[in-house]
Model the fold of this input.
Amino acid sequence: MSDLTSRVDAALDATYDDYKAFINIPSVSSQPEHFEDVGRTAETLAGWLRDLGAAEVKVVREGGQPAVLAHFPAPEGKPTVCLYAHHDVQPTGNLDEWTTPPFEAVERDGRLYGRGAADDKAGVMSHLAMLRAFDGKPPVGVKLFIEGEEECGSVSLVNVIERHREMLEADMFLIGDGGVWEVGTPALNTSLRGVVSAVFTISTLDHGVHSGEYGGVVPDALTALVRLLASLHDDDGSVAIKGLVSGPGPEVDYPLDRLADEAGKLPGTQWIGYGPVTDRMWTQPACATLAIDTTRVADASNTLIPSATAKVSVRIAPGDDGKRALKCLMDHIVEHAPWGAKIEFGELDSGDPCTVASDGPSNTLYRAALDEAFGSATVEMGTGGSIPMIADFQQAFPGIEVAVTGVCDPTSRMHSTDESASIADWRKYTHATALFLEKLAARG
Done:
């Protein structure tokens, strides 16, 4: 066993309890009742980094949730890597559907369960463990950018880049918010979809009316909403919004039986869309209705509902533009509102897709480190998820290499109930990053 391997193993053992404690903080960035918790994860991480002797640590708020920036200066003549992850998490959803409470980290069968265990507190704590393995003196310069609002649209990211550029400039950006091909097999994520979303209210009446007295002549808003939402897809489930971009995916075989198991598809449910599975998941748009606000069944009366609200999200393919795609979505909603129903838009968000080159010298070194740490050949893959900050980084720092990796695997259930991460993969990923920094230092 090499000295580096021993040091990383020791740091991982020492960091594991901190990892669980970090999960236990409910840092849900989209819910005002948890804003103090998002601040608590930021300050907790900042304290750990100060304890490591970082030359500079900042908790910055530039119009949004707090980000943590830190700097471990490069030894003379050595390059600098900027490591990214995010400390905020998604809402929990229905608590009754969790096997154990989402903010009580629990280990079961080699996996760590809890909201954020995979996305992306695994990335945050891997970066921390790696720095602890080097006792705060990595062989190359390290800058950390740990975002606090990735899960709610990175609304202040542009401000952070503009106002703290010197804390982010580096020779390479390593994004620790991606995933593996499958448990035990590492990946470089070479394309990511963007995401646009719209909250809108559809109205047909200025007040509710008796469904018997007026039904059959007067339209209700909920039925109008259902018809509008149905227009977002063709009969085969392909997205029907005009103007969105599609493209070919990588030539990677993704068996449908594997996908069915990972997604939990019920027997008899049909697949939607057309073309190869990887195209549909990575390089074609996808549309989903995320939420509807209307009368609960328990509160229902025989009344025609005057207004109903929905949130629709569209994942857009690499090569598309977030702002243009959002306009396509909004135009579709207005044009397909039935019976002259009134549309009013609320919250609107857009984030660009991106492609990431994997053939640069630093990516080649990182691939070798992943191969060695995992004992398995690295797969190049796209991902249907979105990390809009990558496109923002590519625009702000053109020409600098970016690598996207991480711990999330197809069974991690990110954003869903019983989210979890493979502890073995978390450890291997940390070993890979430490090994990469040593290789990078040796290259100079």
Remarks:
- DSSP finds twelve helices and 18 strands in the chain.
- The mean pLDDT is 95.
